[in-house]
Write the structure tokens for this entry.
Amino acid sequence: MSYRFNNDVEVARNYYNSSDADNFYSRVWGGEDLHVGIYKTEDEDIYIASRRTIDKMAGYAQSIDKDTKIIDLGGGYGGSGRHLAKKYGCHVTVINLSEKENERGRKLNKEQGLDHLVDIIDGSYDDIDFPDNEFDIVWSEDAFLHTDARDKVIEEAGRVLKKGGDFIFTDPMQTDNCDTEVLQPIYDRLQLPSLGSPGFYREACQKAGMKEMAFEEMPLQLATHYNRVLNETIKKEEDLKNYISDDYISKMKKGLKHWVNGGRNGNLTWGIFHFKK
């Protein structure tokens, strides 16, 4: 199956398909997750904090069992899908744009004996190739920031979600009253004019026929996570240089600092949104 990608999604696809990005995320994040963790301490293991995010998000669902069908939009290596499938026996479909990440994810599915429960599909979340009302839960972690067509993504999420189903997601966001000039370096790195905001997601989800149930806002977890990744990058830098270009590492360290500062100065936020159709 082949897909056409919008220009902004193509930028993200090319980035995550690069050898530098794949080696960075698989070696620093641990090869399972690409999302923000929830930390008990500032130096906690990234993998453990990332798993805690998944478990906390799952707690917002009405129920998850072997009959639950979940779609994960922009699921990266499929780590969240495997964690949910392993814990609940549910079926998870992961839609993700990076073929390199998807190849690694399918390999992990087989290694963990979960390829019968987790499907990873090459595709974009703004054009989901599934019928209306197909899934009990639409799930996403820190993926929507990579597109400027977020209204279309939310519309698609609402379309494929069953009536009474749960839409549970996280995303690094600009605050509703942010200083956009301060965030310009982040926009430039993403090659986008803006990030989503809590106000935007509330309005978009309402238009898509979904009702807000909760928003657990945790901006300091965003800052903690990116600072934790920055410190891990510095700690592993000499070894990472065997696999990743100096230019990529330099830009990554600079970019991570922008995210840390944004989370600490009130211009960025992050948290778990829960909507119901």
About this structure: The chain has one domain: 7-276. Strands lie at 69-73, 91-96, 118-122, 135-141, 161-170, 173-174, 211-217, 268-269, 271-276. The chain has a mean pLDDT of 93.
